[in-house]
Amino acid sequence: MKILLVAPPYALLGRYFFPVGIAYVSAMLKKHGFHVACCNSALEDDWQEVFRNALAREKPDVLGIGSLTPSYPFVKWMFETAKRELPGLVTVLGGGILSSEPEVFESLGADIGVVGEGEATSVELMHTLEQGGDLSAVAGLLYRDAEGKTRRTAPRAFIEDLDTVPIPDYEGFRFDICHAHQKTHDMVSSRGCPFHCTFCFSALGRGKYRAHSIDYVIREIRHLVDTYGVQKFGLMDEVFALRKERILEFCAKVRPFGIKWYTQLRVGVVDAGLLESMREAGCETVFYGLESMCPEVLRSMNKKLKPAEIEHALELTYQSRMDSFGNFIFGDPAETTETAWETLDWWVKNRRYFVNLGKIDCWPGTKIYHDAIARGIIQDKIAFIEQGCPLINMTRMPSTEFLDMLKRVWVLHQGLLWPGLLLAARVDEDGCASVRCRCPHCEVEVEFVHLETTALHADRSAHRLPCGNCGRSFDIPLRLPPVAHAEPTRALFEKALAQRAAGDLDGAMESLLALFESTREHPVAVVVAASIRLAQGHVERAKELVRLAMQFNPSTPFLMDWAALCYELYGDARMARIFADQARLLRQCRAPGLEGAELERLDPMELRYRELFPTGTDGVVVGSSPGAQ
C-alpha cells in the first residue's frame, strides 16, 4: 500500500515553515515499515502543480493531509482535486484543523479523519486499511460507514512516553529547503498544556502535559546541526517546562553546541539565576504569554497571572540582556475601553520591552469560540472557517466603540517607535545609508552601516536594530535611505497643491486619494489631505488618513503632530497626548547637527512640510479653508 502525506500551504503563501506534526506521523509510519512518500507543497509558489505532480508520480492508495485551520481552502482544493484525478483514492484528514472543529470533516470531504495525536492512530489505521479490517475498532477516528453516515470511534489515549516517537521526518518534507529560506527552526520538546486559557486550543492535550526527555531533545538537535547545519532554533512548545530543573538540564546539555536558541516560558517560572543560565547556554529570546495588564481581563482569560508577575518577568529578562517577546491581545469578552487603556497606558510607559499589540483571534476549539457560537455571534461554523475566522466582536461594547478600541491598538503598535539618539547620518553617492546612534538602553554610541540591506520592521517602516554593545534593540528615528517618489506621485501631489491653492478642495482631495492608491509613504500628502478634511469638517476622516499613514512613516515628527491634532479634535485626549509626546521624543532624538542641507538630503519631506506648513498645525483653522493658515 502506497501512502502520500502532504503538507498544504499556510494561509500566507510564501511563508516557509516546517510541518512538524505530519512529519512525526511520517516518521512513525516509516518506522513501522510502510511505504510513505511526502510532499511539502508550501515550499513552492506553484503549489497546485506541485501537488498534482506528486499525485501523478506516486499514484498513492492513501492520501493523508495534516493541517491547521488557516489552510482550510487549500486542503479543500487538494481533496477535491485528488478525488477527481484518482477516484479510488482513500483520503485521510488530520491535524488541528479537524481536532479543533470536527464538523470540517464533512465540508472538506475526507473519507477518514484522525482526531488528536496522529502517530499511533495512523499506524493502526494503515494496518486496518491494508488488511481490510473494521475501522470502528480503531480509536481516534471519524469515518463514513456503508450508508455514508459519519461515525466517531472511541478517543485515542495520549502517548505517555514521547521518547517512543521517532524524530520528525525532516528529509521527507525537505527540511533543507525550509531551512534555506527560514534560517531557524522551531522544535517541539513537549506536548499539551496543563492550563486552560480561553483563547487557546491544544490538539495535543488540554490539561495534559507530557515531555520528551532532554536527552531525546539533544539527539534531535545534534541531528539538525550535523545534517543541516542549523545554528539557531526555537523550543516553541505550548509550555517548554513546568519546572526549572528541566530548563537547567537542557542548558547544561545544549551549551557545548555553541548555538543560539529561543524558547517560550510562563512568567512565573523565571528568576534571575535561571535567565543567566539560559543566556550563558546560548538563549537569545524568551517568549512569554502576557495578553493583558488588566486583572479583570486576565481573570476572564483564565490566565492565572497577575500584572505584577508579568512586569517582574519582563524586567528580569531585560536585565539579563536577553530579548523578551510577548503580545498584549485585545477583544476578550471582558474587554472595555477602560480595560484596554489599563494595558495601553502601561505599554506606552514601558516600550523598552517591545511587547506587541494585537487582537484576540477566535480560533475553533477555544472556549471563546464555543461561547461565541452559544451567544449567536458565530451562526455558521463552517462559513466562519471558510471566511478565514474573521474579526468578530466578542465584547459587550457597541461595534463602533469596539472598532475604535482596536484602531487605537493598531496605530500605537505601528506608529510608536522606541528610538535611540541619532547623532549622525549620511547617504553616500552609491545610495548606501549609515547612522551613528546612542543606544537608549546602555547609552553607548553604536554605528550601523548599509541600512538598505537591513529589512524594515515587519509591522512598521522603520529600522529596529540590536545595539552592538548591550544587544538590546531600538529604533532609528529617521527613515533611511529616503523614499524616492516616482514622477506620477510627484505630479499628483503638485496637482493637488495647485487645486488646493485655487480653492478646489474636492478636486485636491480626489487627486490625493488617487495618490494614496499607490503609496502612503508621502507624509506631506497625508498632512495636506488631513488639512482639507479638517477644513471640510470631517474630523474622523482626517484622523483615519493620518492613522493609516503612520505605519509607513513612524519616524516623521510632523505626522505625529497631526495625529495629536486629529485625535484632540476627535475627542480622544489620551491619544492626542501620546502622539504629542511622541512628536517631541522624535525631535529630541535627532541631534541638532541634522538640520539644514544635511536634513534636506536625509529627509526631504521634512523640508517640504515646513514650506507648506511653516507654523506646523497651529495655523489650521477647523471649518475654514486651509489657506487661512
Strand order of the largest sheet: 2-1-3-4-5-6-7
CATH top level assignment of the largest domain: Alpha Beta
Please give the domain count. 4
Global morphology: globular
Portion of residues in beta strands equals 5-15%
* Fold-level CATH name of the largest domain: TIM Barrel
Secondary structure category? alpha/beta
Percentage of helical residues?
Answer: 40-55%
CATH architecture of the largest domain: Alpha-Beta Barrel
SS element count, helices: 24
Unreliable runs: 623-629
Q: Write the CATH homologous superfamily of the largest domain.
A: Aldolase class I
Largest β-sheet summary: 7 strands, mixed
What does this structure look like?
It is a single chain. The chain is α/β, with parallel strands linked by helices. It has 4 domains: 2-152, Cobalamin-binding domain (Rossmann fold); 183-397, TIM Barrel, CATH 3.20.20; 421-475, no CATH class; 487-628, Alpha Horseshoe (Serine Threonine Protein Phosphatase 5, Tetratricopeptide repeat), CATH 1.25.40. It is 42% helix and 15% strand. Strands 2-1-3-4-5-6-7 form a 7-stranded mixed beta sheet, with helices on both faces. Strands 8-11-12-13-14-15 form a 6-stranded parallel beta sheet. The chain has a 3-stranded antiparallel beta sheet with strand order 16-17-18.
List descriptors.
alpha/beta; Rossmann fold; TIM Barrel; seven-stranded mixed beta sheet; six-stranded parallel beta sheet; 24 helices; disordered C terminus
Short synopsis of the structure:
The chain has 629 residues and is of the alpha/beta class.
